[in-house]
Amino acid sequence: MLANCRTSWRVVGYGLLAVASAAGSRAEAEEPPPPSSQTASDPAAERGREALLFRGYLSPEWGEEVYRKVAELWDGKAPDPDADPEAYAEAFASRYGLHPAPYPNGGLPMGLRRSENLKTGRVGFQIDCLACHGGSIGGRSYVGLGNTQLDLIGLYRDFYRADGRPLFFTGFTVNTVRGSVNAGQMAAILISLRNPDLSRRLFPLPHGAKFPETDVPAWWLLKHKRTMYYDGRTDARSVRSIMQFLLGEKTREQFEELEPTFADILAYLNRIEAPSYPFPIDDGLAARGREVFEEHCARCHGSYGEDRSYPNRIIELDVIGTDPARALAGTEALVSHFNASWFGETYPVDEVLTGYQAPPLDGIWATAPYLHNGSVPTLAQLLDSSTRPGRFRRPPSTGFEHYDTEAVGWRVEVLDPVSPEQAARDSDRSIFDASRFGLGNQGHTFGDLLSDDDRRTVIEYLKTL
Ligand code: HEC
Ligand code: HEC
Fold first, then answer.
1. Among 5, 60, 218, 258, which lies 20 to 30 A Cα-Cα from 401?
2. For residue 30, is pLDDT > 50?
3. How far is the CA of 43 from the centre of ligand 1 (A)?
4. What is the rounded (10 degree) CA torsion for 309, 313, 318, 324?
5. Ligand nearest to the CA of 179
6. Ligand 2 center to residue 78 CA distance, Å?
7. Ligand 2: which residue has its CA nearest to atom 35?
8. Region labeled Disordered — which residues (predicted)?
9. Tens of pLDDT along 169-197?
């Protein structure tokens, strides 16, 4: 588990382990953001957009120099940050799997934030929600598209090394492959270091939860959901739940002060729209596909268009059959500890463990790879389970040159299977291997029953959502 740091628990924020100090922080001063047409009519959402994109909430985790110093760890392959800052920024973003910010961010990619410790005046870097929740596709960045390129453990290792500090945390897998993150275990560790009143514990509460790494869900789905997270056990209106990462440093009083700000952020998340499919769609095929979808899929995923409806169903593990590790991770001990705390006061986590929520499918064309663990590269493979590759190399970017408009999703390099022991030892994080913990690509076999022709029409229909 967390390494032996007995004096002050170095606690987990996004930066995973920041020294436990209750210092405030402030993001670098920015141009005042232009009001967004998407949120202009909703003052709470407009405040939330500013609060999300233009403010930092955690003290810097790494010193200011790390942005340049990490390049010393790149085997001499770095462009000169002074002579060619743009080439440097690009190399930096691509190395760690970050994307250009579609809002002013001081020249930094989405997810990386310059911030200042208000107590000490120290300036440095932190990562924020957009490291995981900011993605790109076809050369455009989107706030709320899950980041399928992020290499969080690679970023942590380099940043701490460049900052001249050891990386303290061990004992859980942050990610074995790019684009996966273990947000669940981070949150579980954070809450285990607090008492129900949010005072700090000397030793973590044992909770037995073992979360796997997962994909990151798109924020534009949230407005349609009554419950959130892959297991659907948390009310989608829970503001406190989206504040968990602040447990890295905030006190109970600070949480209470910040709650209205995060209510605004949630209002903003609920205004985000899915991007439309950018290539031609065969309308006739899609219309036929809609009928197949209504017959075979809508009971779980809902109906779309003018009179849309979404049943918000959470499907039992033995029915859905996908990798159970994420659903099983929410142990009774963890849930009851969370529910006894400030976080569970307003919207407690459901005590019943069922399985996985059938998500709304808006913008599904943009969110490959599929399933909660990103184990299936395309819709065609999702709908024909016999064709799913067990081991593959993820594409090196989210450019359309790697996108498959027929199968809908990512063109991957399929690799020969290796033994699970070998797969567990892999250090190349461009490789996905379904034999690793939580990454199984089985289940969701509903498409297997369809004819090839029906599958083709459903895929065409899914492009319209
Ligand atoms: C380290 C990566 C990471 C960071 C940082 C992060 N998230 Fe997430 N977020 C995830 C993952 C992964 C999930 C899915 C968790 C699950 O269900 O297991 C998620 C789920 C969510 C959901 C639920 C979405 C749904 O439809 O179920 C919301 C809302 C959310 N995050 C908001 C935020 C906000 C706001 C922040 C910043 C304060 C944030 N997240 C920071 C990775 C991250
Ligand atoms: C019995 C309910 C059920 C039926 C029927 C069903 N699904 Fe699903 N579907 C789910 C659940 C639950 C998940 C999430 C599983 C997971 O992530 O482990 C899912 C996931 C998906 C995903 C991936 C979503 C993502 O963001 O990665 C797609 C696409 C999808 N289903 C399409 C379909 C289509 C098309 C059909 C009809 C042929 C269908 N489903 C039938 C329950 C169902």
1. 218
2. no
3. 23
4. 110
5. 1
6. 42
7. 297
8. 25-45
9. 667 999 999 999 999 999 999 999 999 99
Cα torsion 265, 271, 275, 276 to 10°: value is: 170
Domain that holds residue 289: 283-331+362-462
Q: Which atom of ligand 1 is nearest to the CA of 245?
A: 38
In a domain, 186, yes or no: no
What is the per-residue pLDDT for 18? 38
Choose which residue among 216, 227, 312, 349 to substitute to test ligand 1 binding: the one with the highest number of ligand atoms within 8 A of its C-beta. Answer: 216
Q: What is the mean pLDDT of residues 158-167?
A: 91
pLDDT of residue 117: 85
pLDDT score recorded for residue 36: 72
CB-based contact 379:409 (threshold 8 Å):
yes
Number of domains present in the structure of the chain: 1
Ligand nearest to the CA of 58: 1
Taking CA atoms only, the protein residue closest to ligand 1 atom 28 is 242
Residue 465 Cβ inside 6 Å of ligand 2? The answer reads no
Residue nearest to atom 20 of ligand 1 (CA): 229
In 3D space, the residue among 224, 232, 230, 192 whose CA is nearest the CA of residue 347 turns out to be: 232
Whether residue 254 lies inside any domain: the answer is no
Residue 278 has pLDDT above 90, yes or no: yes
**Distance set, CA 127 to CA 22, 56, 130, 158, 172 (Å):** 18, 9, 8, 14, 20
Decide: pTM greater than 0.90: yes
Domain-embedded: residue 111: no
Q: How far apart are CA 301 and CA 382, in angstroms?
A: 15
- Could you report the per-residue pLDDT of 364-422, keeping only the tens digit for each? 999 999 999 999 999 999 999 999 999 999 999 999 999 999 999 999 999 999 999 99
Is the minimum distance from the CB of 322 to ligand 2 under 6 angstroms? yes
> Is residue 288 situated within a structural domain?
yes
Q: What are the contacts of 347-353 at 24+ separation with CB within 8 A?
A: 347/234, 347/235, 347/237, 347/238, 347/240, 347/241, 349/233, 349/234, 350/227, 350/232, 350/233, 350/234, 352/233, 353/231, 353/233, 353/327, 353/328
Q: Are 118 and 111 in contact (CB under 8 A)?
A: no
Banded model confidence at residue 328, pLDDT cuts 50, 70, 90: very high
CA of 280 from ligand 1 middle (Å) equals 32
Surface-to-core class of residue 83, CB atoms within 10 Å of its CB (0-12 exposed, 13-18 middle, 19+ buried): exposed
Beta carbon of 364 within 6 Å of any ligand 2 atom: yes
Instruction: Give the residue with greater pLDDT, 7 vs 232.
Output: 232
Q: Which ligand is nearest to the CA of 373?
A: 2
